[in-house]
Specification:
Layout (H helix, E strand, L loop, with lengths): L6 E12 L2 E13 L4 E5 L6 H9 L7 E7 L13 E4 L13 H12 L4 H14 L5 H4 L9 H13 L5 E5 L7 H18 L2 E6 L2 H7 L2 E6 L2 E7 H6 L4 H9 L49 E3 L2 E3 L7
Parallel strand pairs: 3-7, 3-8, 5-6, 6-7
Antiparallel strand pairs: 1-2, 1-4, 8-9, 9-11, 10-11
Helix pairs in contact: 2-3, 2-5, 5-6
The structure holds adenosine-5'-diphosphate (ADP) and magnesium ion.
The site of magnesium ion has 3 residues, from α1.
Length: about 325
């Protein structure tokens, strides 16, 4: 018995026009997500993580050129952004309207997507404020965002994202702008909300510790492609792709107390404007063989648990 996926992404390619040529953000990205599943997208800056989320949400720039397919089989129709898909951005300081009280900001999507009165929408907004941990919710509902701390603002942004009851929540580095203690609280809040409401979650992070805390499954992105995917315990405990291994080794410092340095891997990712020949990680890979620079590795394993690396090709 197999579940009908919530989301199915096949061979997604996204590029942006540049001065001379094109910038490749995604170079063939495949991804299947089940209802209620929690997945983390990890990888260095520039890997295409945000582009993948924006493409899924239907929020890409109009100028972006998109190829490939994005389907929502369990939904059976095109998703309505804000209703079927909620989005939490990295920066809770710029994602909220500075002049509108927070309850109104939460009530708006409720009012817009559900057939309820303002009165009912506002009451639901106050209940949501309480649910995300803003106390006393009734009194603070009329405050504007600058009356709240960074962590509280991210709680409010989460309340807005889930207000209309989406089945898919997308979160792009939702804790990177926050201090470590607040990060853990926000992750716990996201975790309990997605479980309680049966939402699927796709969370972008450059921090494997964040992925370990919240995800059932991890996808590792490199230069616009998924190079490894699998259950979190497998990917973190027995990484296969040399890039995943390097990423985790670099992030070992995460086990140390903060302030944590960002993971760093020797070398630089490929030029996003260049056409890629062979494995995109080969120039930085300690295990690269001559054929790695010529032939692009295929996917070995199942769609949900596998690796794109010649070391593992049959
Ligand atoms: N709107 C845009 N216009 C031009 N280039 C873009 C745009 N958005 C992203 N890119 C480029 O696409 C690549 C992937 O970016 P992004 O998806 O933001 O990566 P990540 O979130 O993993 O850091 C980068 O090279 C980035 O500079
Ligand atoms: Mg990003």
């Amino acid at each position: 018995m197999s579940t009908i996926p919530l989301l199915s992404v096949r061979a997604l390619r996204v590029c942006f026009a540049a001065d001379k040529g094109r910038i490749w953000a995604l170079r063939g990205f495949d991804f299947v997500l089940d209802p209620g599943e929690r997945v983390a997208l990890v990888g260095e800056s520039g890997a295409g993580k945000s582009t993948a989320l924006l493409a899924i949400a239907g929020l890409l720039d109009r100028q972006a050129q998109v190829e490939g397919t994005l389907d929502f089989p369990a939904l059976g129709r095109r998703p309505i952004p804000g209703k079927d898909i909620g989005f939490v951005f990295q920066d809770p300081f710029s994602s909220l309207d500075p002049v509108m009280d927070v309850a109104t900001q939460i009530a708006e999507p409720i009012r817009f997507h559900k057939d309820v009165s303002w009165r009912v929408a506002r009451a639901q907004a106050v209940a949501l404020l309480r649910r995300v941990g803003i106390e006393p919710a009734g009194a603070r509902a009329r405050d504007v965002p600058h009356r709240f701390s960074g962590g509280e603002r991210q709680r409010i942004a989460i309340a807005i994202a889930i207000a209309a009851g989406p089945k898919l929540l997308l979160a792009d580095e939702p804790t990177s702008a926050l201090d470590t203690a607040t990060q853990a609280q926000i992750l716990d809040l996201l975790d309990s909300l997605v479980r309680e409401r049966g939402m699927a979650l796709v969370l972008v992070t450059h921090d494997p510790a964040v992925a370990a805390r919240i995800a059932d499954r991890i996808l590792v992105l490199y230069a616009g492609r998924c190079v490894e995917a699998g259950p979190s315990a497998r990917v973190l405990g027995a990484p296969r792709h040399p890039y995943t291994r390097a990423l985790l080794a670099a992030a070992l410092s995460l086990a140390r107390p903060p302030p944590r340095p960002l993971p760093e891997i020797p070398g630089t990712p490929p030029d996003p404007e260049a056409a890629l020949v062979g494995c995109s990680f080969a120039p930085r890979c300690a295990f690269a063989q001559p054929h790695c620079r010529t032939f692009s590795p295929g996917w070995t394993g199942t769609p949900r648990d596998g690796v794109a690396c010649h070391l593992f090709s049959p």
